[in-house]
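ENTRY TYPE: paired fold submission
RECORD: A
CONTENT: sequence, then structure tokens
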Amino acid sequence: MNKVIFTADDYGVIPAIDEGIIKAVNAGKINSVAAFSNHHLFESRIKKLQDSCAGKTFEIGCHLTISSGKPISERKIGLLTRQGSLGFRRRKYFKKYTQMRRTKHTTQELNDLHYELSKQVEQFYKYDIEITNLSCHHNTLFFFEDYHQLFFQVAKEFGLVVRSPLNIPKAMNDLYISMVVLRLFDNMSKEDRHRILSHTRNMRSFLSQYEGLPDMPIALNTVHYGPLALPTNRLSNCEIDAYADEKNLALRMELSNDAPEEEVMEYVFHLIDDNYDQIDAYCEQTKFSNSRYTGIDAGYFDSRMAEQRALLNFELSHLVSFESWRNLSRL
């Protein structure tokens, strides 16, 4: 039986997404929640998760972000200036991941980045919320080798397990990185775009040579993700049903062969409350969230609903054994 961690990403911003995640945890389909800490309602949203899922076995992780919402830190230089590498849009919000820039002041940039990431983790401890792991929105901290090293450094400083940067299916991740680099054409230098591609292609070598590598699952499986948002029209309820059936089949096939006993795979899910009649109301929530969390916008809500519907209708008990993030360091 496969040892897995089933993680729901992006908790703490959109109420309908939070509700979908809570239902999945209570249904016993999710044992890990990746939560943002830089939303202005962070404390109340996390408390709702804990209260609504009391008695259920699940862990909370910090979903670091440098590409959506507002920074927690007050710094206005380097990383957090409009002219800086990842600065605020209108000096308030992080830039989109497709608008990222690197500065020439690398040391200051990395110092600012370290400060911001640490503050996002510290938010959990500020409210006595136990966390066990780190991940990052859009995988932006896996784009550059020095960012990646800093991600590992923060994990070590707080004694946390991390999400693996090795993605399955690899072709899906390669396509994602290629699209990111293409969309960064006007914002990032040719040299920096090359650095993103180079680090992605040499990821296994980077991990094998890294001293003091944090503990992590064997890989991150995104087979349940999608379909990609369609710019022309929303999926119908019947189309969501069809995608949900396809997802169930793909997940069953992926889990049909037992992995080696010592290996733990993390599967990531992007969920939303499965109520098709309310999808327009859910889309309205993005307009009034005061957040600007790119990547979890209304254009993907039909896809999220397909993921939610598939997961809640999937029988797990004979295929997987849920593993704890805490146990990864003991394997």
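RECORD: B
CONTENT: sequence, then structure tokens
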Amino acid sequence: MPYSRTPATGPAEHQQVIRGFFDAFARGDTDALGRCYHPDISFGDPVFLELEGRDQVVGMWSMLLASVTDLKIAAWDVTADDHSGGASWSADYVLRRNGRQVVNQVSAQFRFEDGLIVRHHDDFDFRHWSTLALGRPTGVLVGWAPALRRRVRDRARHRLDEYLRNGSLISG
């Protein structure tokens, strides 16, 4: 369902945009997911500290969807007001590169402009995630050591840049 940019949006419409985002994410529909975002979207989380613009942000989701199997997304406690919103959500998936099962609990905050998400920030326990994604002892070390954490972030950013450079098509 495409979301139009309407200045007269409020809490109910913003909740609908958030739910639409998670529904699209659960289906792996990056076109629909991208339509929930304002063209000037900025995104941040413990791995991708700051991404700017729809191409980078939707490209990141597309890359992540391509790198997992058996994805299950659940969102709850969706709230919104005239300018911002939030949700709790979880991602349960298997990483293609190593077959490791990851269950990540995330807290999301959103800001809205013109009825679309203009700022999306996710927060999760990096130590827990790295232990599940990388295993022991590597994931434990990565979760605790700032230099290793930075290395994971740099690798993720490099992978995203390569993914975008190699022609991932992002519409919306």
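NOTES ON RECORD B: The chain has a mean pLDDT of 90. The CA atoms of residues 124 and 172 lie 27 Å apart.
STATUS: closed
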